[in-house]
Amino acid sequence: MAIQTRNVGAFPANPIGLGCMSLSFGYGPASSSQHIKSVIELAVDLGVNFLDTAAVYGDGHNETELGKAIAPYRSQVAICTKGGMTATYNEKGRQRKIDSRPEVIRSNCEDSLKRLGVDVIDLYYLHRWDKVTPIEDVAGAMADLITAGKIKGYGLSEVSATTLRQAHNTHPVTAIQSEYSLWTRNPEIAVLPSCEELDITLVAFSPFGRGFLAYGSPDPSEFEEKDLRRVMPRFQAPYYEKNLLLRNQLKDLTEAAGLTNAQLLLAWVLQQSPSVVTIPGTTRLEHLSENMKTQSLNVSNQVLEEASRLINQHTVAGERYDSVATGQVGTERFQDQL
Ligand SMILES: NC(=O)c1ccc[n+]([C@@H]2O[C@H](COP(=O)([O-])OP(=O)(O)OC[C@H]3O[C@@H](n4cnc5c(N)ncnc54)[C@H](OP(=O)(O)O)[C@@H]3O)[C@@H](O)[C@H]2O)c1
After folding, report:
1. φ/ψ (deg, to 5) at 60
2. Rounded distance, CA 47 to CA 240, Å?
């Protein structure tokens, strides 16, 4: 597919961006500063100009390291980060907190600006809505940050279409970030149609199903203690074995088409709508090159449709998140579901 830029607000983004979370946190140990610089350097060289981070990724480590690494390329890339979710330490250890109050958004944004070492954040998201603060107040706080020149646009993450519309009515939303991939189709129900109608970008996160569908996750028995995937049902018995079969069938399909699973997954998510851009994560230079090669590949509609019939919400086994935790706000379990 010949990939054209897609506007995120006024910014012409390469629709394949880079999710930086796993360079600090989530699926393994944090990468060294030198390695993060190498990843960012190659990403920019390959045309990536849309970088995703968050205050909570490594408790500031990801923003700090990204800030250093992008300094030579600042004018070429959009930096997108998130607030409203932070970690504190007390006698119980590490506690993460979701808080969407305007004063928290303002102070989180100041902290992110400092860690990133930039004057302005291109896209600033509320990482999770606390469902207590009126979403209109969140939108108002974001509008104030835009007026103050601290951020260029704002977004929300993992909210419903109704909430998205309420925020948009208060101040136009630039983007919503939601999990979207062959095996997670939730945005198709209402969020994606709303994005198309309102000219909001859908930033599809975890396009590889947290690495699994691209052969980028270890056997669950080898997950590290803090690996976010440990509590996700799709990585647990009896679902995991069923999902392995789907992944292997996908590989048969992609190999016959001269692709890798990762390339098909990126081509598929971008083909769903011109309103979609995606932010695959990687810590490996060879994976980054493989992923960016998708830009120059021609993937037929027939192959994409076959993949979609093979892996979808009806064929995947297990919920995306632990059902006990789903919907809880302000608890460690919920916050582990990043
Ligand atoms: N808004 C939110 O709440 C939220 C939640 C989750 C994630 N995100 C954002 O979305 C980004 C991406 O999501 P994600 O990292 O969760 O999941 P993902 O992009 O679906 O998968 C990342 C995993 O895929 C592996 N991978 C990458 N390229 C590969 C390739 N070509 N072949 C095989 N494996 C490959 C990576 O392993 P290697 O490191 O070994 O390449 C990594 O562990 C994050 O970095 C973050 O910025 C946002």
Report:
1. 100, -20
2. 35
Q: Rounded distance, CA 281 to CA 73, Å?
A: 19
| Ligand 1 atom with the shortest distance to the CA of 27 | 43
pTM: 0.96
3-state secondary structure the chain: CCCCCEEECCEEECCECEECHHHCCCCCCCCCHHHHHHHHHHHHHCCCCEEECCCCCCCCHHHHHHHHHHHHHHHHCEEEEEECEEEEEECCEEEEEECCCHHHHHHHHHHHHHHHCCCCECEEEECCCCCCCCHHHHHHHHHHHHHCCCECCEEEECCCHHHHHHHHHHCCCCEEEEECECCECHHHCCHHHHHHHHCCEEEEECCCCCCHHHCCCCCHHHCCCCCHHHHCHHHCCCHHHHHHHHHHHHHHHHHHCCCCHHHHHHHHHHHCCCCEEECCECCCHHHHHHHHHHHHCCCCHHHHHHHHHHCCCCCCCCCCCCCCCCCCCCCHHHHCCC
Which atom of ligand 1 is the closest one to the Cα of 291? Answer: 31
pLDDT in tens, 161-220: 999 999 999 999 999 999 999 999 999 999 999 999 999 999 999 999 999 999 999 999
CATH number of 6-220+261-297: 3.20.20.100
Does the C-beta of 155 come closer than 6 Å to ligand 1? no
Alpha carbon of 149 to ligand 1 centroid (Å):
31
**Structural tokens at position 289:** 């090159």
Q: What is the whole-number distance in angstroms between the Cα of residue 314 and the centre of ligand 1?
A: 23
Domain spans of the chain, in order of start: 6-220+261-297
Q: Whose CA is closest to 53, among 156, 133, 125?
A: 125
The residues assigned a catalytic role are 57
User: Is cis: bond before 238, omega within 30 of 0?
Assistant: yes
